[in-house]
Amino acid sequence: MGLNKKSVDDINVAGKRVLVRCDFNVPLKNGEITDETRIKAALPTIEKLLKDGGRVILCSHLGKVKNGPNEGESLAPVAKRLSEKLGREVNFVADYNVTGEAATKAVEEMKEGDVVLLQNTRFRGKEETKNGEEFSKELAELADVYVCDAFGSSHRAHASVAGVTDCIRAKGGECAVGYLMQKEIDFLGNAVENPVRPFVAILGGAKVADKLNVINNLLEKCDTLIIGGGMAFTFLKAKGYEIGKSLVDEEKIDYCKEMMEKAEKLGKKLLLPVDTVIADGFPNPIDAEIEVSTVDADKIPADKEGLDIGEKTAALYADAVKSAKTVVWNGPMGVFENPILAKGTIAVAKALAETDATTIIGGGDSAAAVNQLGFADKMSHISTGGGASLEFLEGKELPGVVAADDK
Question: Whole-model pTM above 0.90?
Answer without folding.
Answer: no
